[in-house]
Amino acid sequence: MTQAVATVRDGHAYQARQFWLKALRLLDPAGSIVKVGFESGPKGFDDVWVEYAPGKGRNDHHGVPLLREHMQCKWHVASGDFGYEDLTSPDFINASSVSLLQRALDAQRTHAPAGTGSRFRLVTNWHLRRGDPLRTMVHQRHGFLRPDRLFDGTGDGSAAGKVRKIWRDHLGVDDAQLRTLARTLGLSTDTQSLLDLRDNLDLLLELRGMRRVPDNEDTCWYDDLTYQWLAAGRIEFDRDSFRDACQQQKLFEAAPRTHVVFGVKSFEHPVDSLEDRCVAVLDLVHYFNDRPIRNQADWVASLYPDLRSFLLAAAGANEHLRLILDTHATLAFAAGAVLNIKSGRHVELEQRVLHRVIWRAGDTSRDLTWPGWDFTLEQVATPGADVAVGVCLTHDVGPAVMRHLAAALPGVGRLLLASPQGGANSRAVMSGQHAFDLAESLAQRINTERQPGGRVHLFIAAPNAFTFFLGQRQPSMGSVTLYEFDFEEQNGGGYAPSISLPIVSALGGRESDPASC
């Protein structure tokens, strides 16, 4: 009984924190969300919903503007998985007679009869079962069904055909009706723990100048407040009503957080001095002769220690910081490795495209027109365990990397080339969220290709903000060596290694996790 009560409380906390993560965006006057609801809306997808301002909300995965998104949150204490047949079972959602699919169909017919305007998403910490055909039909980037994979032109005897048949028979619909439903249905795995959600909430609370829950307190009063509002019938909020509700609870205690800007430079920008715009600047220019480094040993002996100390000091005093990285790609990647995804810091990056823009995760809604990756895997002549990765966002590094592998890296067995769909160009990355998503998907692909005991060799041509986001995932990629290209051919041209991460000390031990800022 005690465990059952704890499970219910954890489920309520999970739902409440999902609500707050959405509702706090109402306090952003430039944000796209104009309404947030809790325990209201279509049955089965009524845990949390958001409404977007017309013309400002994200597009759905077919490029059609969204007005509403409805979420059903399912938290499980134990790890588990599910497959396509589970969606037809009432037991899967602890119901007596109605399945998740049936509830999704009812919601779609009522709120999105044409399959557009609204989406219905199951958010759970369970995973799609390995080997289940549904696993290949859910888009990894946005978590929604891919109708082209479900309706792939095969008959009922195929893997996709079996899914279609069971779902059609269960719902009593034809293919056309099932296709309309599939346009609106999402199945998202949320691997964040309750503590992760609380940490994310804490960063947003600080950004909005609101009371934060001390780390040493076991309870999060924001969880309980959500259900107090529910008991009082306060289940829908717009910008004004949400601010009023927070003011009544005396949740505001400071001005919204202002941006604190730090700069790192390994070369000088011709017209933009970082010292004019930053509270502190790490100047590494003197280690370089224009772009080439003066002493190859300085990457590990001086640059990385200086960078690490500078960033940890900045992060130790600021949970929300902005970085300007006028640096080589190696230092942008290393900066991400220092402030990795477990650092608990909200980092924005100034990125020069045609003008200065600020990139961060979540800065724009995801757009289906953004290019993803085209991967090419080539077997190198040697059977080594190492894998080389060429990142070709701004230009194609493939030929130069192949020459370097042949001349200097006999231990590399395979070359993975990652290029944006449509080809490399200076505008291939559209925003911070796009860069974040590309980094995430590339890191996942690298992890599938690297072998135990092998090293990842990275050759990057990309915006520094993307490279920072990729560096944040270095701990999950294992041993990584970065390379810099000698554009001026001052050292004979081609690539030269720069930094290998993690740094191994002279005593043979690995550097401690820098995430504990």
How do the strands and helices of this protein lay out in sequence?
Blueprint: H1 2-23, E1 33-38, E2 48-52, E3 68-74, E4 81-82, H2 100-111, E5 118-124, E6 127-128, H3 147-150, H4 159-171, H5 175-182, E7 185-189, H6 194-207, H7 221-231, E8 236-238, H8 239-248, E9 261-265, E10 280-283, H9 298-317, E11 320-326, H10 329-338, E12 346-352, E13 356-359, E14 373-379, E15 386-392, H11 398-408, E16 412-420, H12 432-449, E17 456-461, H13 464-471, H14 474-477, E18 480-485, E19 495-501
Parallel strand pairs: 3-5, 4-6, 5-7, 9-10, 9-11, 11-12, 15-16, 15-17, 17-18
Antiparallel strand pairs: 1-2, 1-8, 2-3, 12-13, 14-16, 18-19
Biggest sheet record: 6 strands, mixed
Ranges where pLDDT stays below 50 over 5 or more residues in a row are: none
Radius of gyration: 25 Å
The CA-CA distance between the termini, in Å, is 39 Å
Question: How many separate domains make up the residues?
Answer: 4
Strand % is: 15-25%
**Residue-averaged pLDDT, rounded?**
87
Overall helicity? 25-40%
Q: Could you say which overall geometry the principal axes of the C-alpha atoms support?
A: globular
Main β-sheet, spatial strand arrangement: 7-5-3-2-1-8
How many strand units? 19
Structural class: alpha/beta
Quickly count the helices. Answer: 14
What does this entry look like structurally?
It is a single chain. With 517 residues, the protein is an alpha/beta fold. It folds into four domains: 1-30 and 193-253, no CATH class; 32-189, no CATH class; 261-359, no CATH class; 373-501, Rossmann fold, CATH 3.40.50. The protein has helices at 2-23, 100-111, 147-150, 159-171, 175-182, 194-207, 221-231, 239-248, 298-317, 329-338, 398-408, 432-449, 464-471, 474-477, and strands at residues 33-38, 48-52, 68-74, 81-82, 118-124, 127-128, 185-189, 236-238, 261-265, 280-283, 320-326, 346-352, 356-359, 373-379, 386-392, 412-420, 456-461, 480-485, 495-501. It has a six-stranded mixed β-sheet with strand order 7-5-3-2-1-8, with helices on both faces. Strands 14-16-15-17-18-19 form a six-stranded mixed β-sheet, sandwiched between helices. The longest helix is centred in the N-terminal third of the chain and has 22 residues, at 2-23. The protein is globular and about 70 Å long. It starts with a helix and ends in a 16-residue tail after the last strand.
